[in-house]
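Tutorial, part two.
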Amino acid sequence: MEKQLKISARYLTKEYDMMKTKSDMLKTLMPFGNTKIEQFWALKGVSFDVYEGDSVGIVGLNGGGKSTLLNIVSQIIPPTSGELTVNGTTNIISVGAGLNLNLTGRENIIMKCEMLGMSSAEIDAKMDDIINFAGDQVIGKIDQPVKTYSSGMKSRLGFSVLVHQDPDILIIDEALSVGDAPFFEKGVARMKQFKAEGKTILFVSHSLSQVETLCDKVIWIDHGRVVMEGSAETVLPQFEKFQREYNKQSKAERARITHESGRSFDLEALRQEHPTEPASYFQRRLYDQPFTWATKLVLTFLTFLLAFTVAASIKDIPFRTAVMEPLTVVSLRSWIILIVVIVAMVVGGILIHNHKERQVRSDD
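Running the prediction step on this input gives:
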């Protein structure tokens, strides 16, 4: 019997804006605030297939894109481009994911179970099993706020809740890395049970021994690209060798490689590398396309219109009167000052933008 395809990823990319201050986002919306925000590409065309019953480990260095990929597969965040098909329900388990720190452990169990669609009767029936699976430390503090828990206790609590569900696809992001040996053994046993039931597992861990224990297949991701994919016996030795060589480099050199790698990517170049693939794979999603100048102008106009309307309301002037006689809302002197400020900001924005473009070209 042919296995069902559970996850199909084709040329997934993810771009982040490296905004250093809160005002950077507002500046990008305005025509006079185009400050050339730096972009970082966390994923650069990742493709793979996962079938029913597969247990797949995802390995790579810190900052390689592993967690970004899992969040996209879990549909927590959208990709910038590419195509993703997921056939089934997904549950993602990461350290403390989705926990409310001000609620007790028991209240968090109820909250997370309700969010996953369980009825009150189902929650009551599984409550003791969930608590006991989490271990003695959690049992002793189950009615205390989660903010008093260690990271390991949070991970065990979240893991325990989710493994008592019935997902088609289980996604584990370092959730077993902070557990003790007995909890890890229970987690492995539960994963093997899921696998025997035909569930699909994606597992991320820096512990290669854990990946080797749990996974049949491994995908190695480095700086947003798939380096190697195959059996655990084939991929893990190659990754270990690469990791030893990489760790010999200085911290500054490793940071430089990561930074430059995040910048050195072009979506159009990826499309040209795969000319036979559908063009739709390499098109930015609508929500990830930059604002055009026309859009920015409309947003600017709406901002000033809102400010004008508020000013008229404060002065208790009817809107129609305010439009016909704007000087009743804002004096001529104020209008002149406002126009001068806008012109100065536009000119300043253009000069800054041109300076930054020259700086980028000189850096390259």
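Residues 355-364 have pLDDT under 50 and may be disordered. In part three we will examine how such features are distributed along the chain.
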